[in-house]
Amino acid sequence: MIRVEDVHKHFGGVHAVNGATLEIAEGSITGLIGPNGAGKTTLFNVIAGAFPPTSGRVWLADEDITGLKPHELFAKGVLRTFQIAHEFSTLTVLENLMMVPGGQTGEDLIGAWFRGRQIREEERRVREKAEGVIDFLNMGHVATELAGNLSGGQKKLLELGRTMMVDARIVFLDEVGAGVNRTLLNTIGDAILRLNQERGYTFCMIEHDMDFISRLCNPVIVMAEGTVLTEGTAEEVKSNEQVIEAYLGTGLKNKPGKQPAPTAAETTGA
Ligand SMILES: Nc1ncnc2c1ncn2[C@@H]1O[C@H](COP(=O)(O)OP(=O)(O)O)[C@@H](O)[C@H]1O
Ligand SMILES: [Mg+2]
Fold first, then answer.
1. Ligand 1 pocket member 36 (CB < 6 A)
2. How is the beta sheet containing 78-80 ordered, strand by strand?
3. Which of 137, 166, 195 is the last residue in one of the domains?
4. In principle, which of 13, 106, 208, 224 could form an S-S bond with 246, CB 3.0–4.6 Å?
């Protein structure tokens, strides 16, 4: 479904992505792992349109989507989740979902004459859809809660919920499990599996938690030093010598739990 062909992304002298080639199969939940600094987030940013690659191409099926902007990719069903923007933290969960641009009713309004009724019907339709998403994610008890008051894990669920307001085909998740407690992590995992099985979503997710990866992902792609090291099932990559070496080789500073603070680009997706 997505093909990344020899992508490079350089920031000055830093070769963050250095010749990455990979494929994400339609219908899969593909995991992307690798030591800190491997270039995973940068590759996501290239695919999801935050910035173009220095060189290389990205394909969506037969279509070259290299360098397309996030809103153009959004219209094609290629989404990445974003942290709930600051200005949305004072809206409720329901309102946050209703804010997602749907674009179904057209700008091709028949005339101002019909507009009032059409907008009311559109709002009712969007509200019903948002309520369906809330049910699906078991968030009924926080539907009228302000997004800013949610726990970290509930915010992640809401971010996932936002992808359900449009007809997503593939969703990119960057460390959706980071800082989320076990119970909510299981809820997020269940939602991902159900979206995959019941709605045909393809996922590509960066994750550090290997239990979470093992439960959800096949295949797992391993990146190191800006390139793809190997690919296989979670079991295969866990016992792969090169993978073990890549993790150990990064030394103490990159041990889980001692990760550097995310860059501005990571937190804003910009
Ligand atoms: N905007 C940027 N400017 C300069 N260097 C960057 C930028 N974004 C990432 N890098 C560097 O690129 C490398 C890969 O980073 P990143 O893609 O965040 O890796 P990962 O997500 O695998 O931890 C790191 O050395 C990082 O410091
Ligand atoms: Mg990262």
1. yes
2. 78-80, 170-174, 202-206, 29-33, 220-224, 227-232
3. 166
4. 224
Query: Token digits for 232?
Result: 């296989």
For residue 258, give the amino acid letter.
Answer: K
What is d(CA 231, CA 30) in angstroms, rounded to the nearest whole number?
A: 10
Q: Could you tell me if 266 and 177 lie in one domain? A: yes
Q: Are 204 and 81 in contact (CB under 8 A)?
A: no
Q: Is residue 256 part of a domain?
A: yes
Beta carbons of 8 and 57 less than 8 angstroms apart: no
- Dist CA 257 CA 263 (whole Å): 16
The domain boundary, picked from 166, 182, 210, lies at: 166
State the pTM of this model: 0.85
- Torsions phi, psi for 87 (to 5 deg): -70, -10
Which tens digit of pLDDT belongs to each residue from 229-251? Answer: 999 999 999 999 999 999 887 54
Q: In the chain, which residues have pLDDT < 70?
A: 84-87, 102-115, 250-270
Q: Tell me: do 71 and 176 sit in the same domain.
A: yes
Residues 122 and 188 in one domain: no
Tell me which residue has its CA closest to atom 18 in ligand 1. Answer: 41
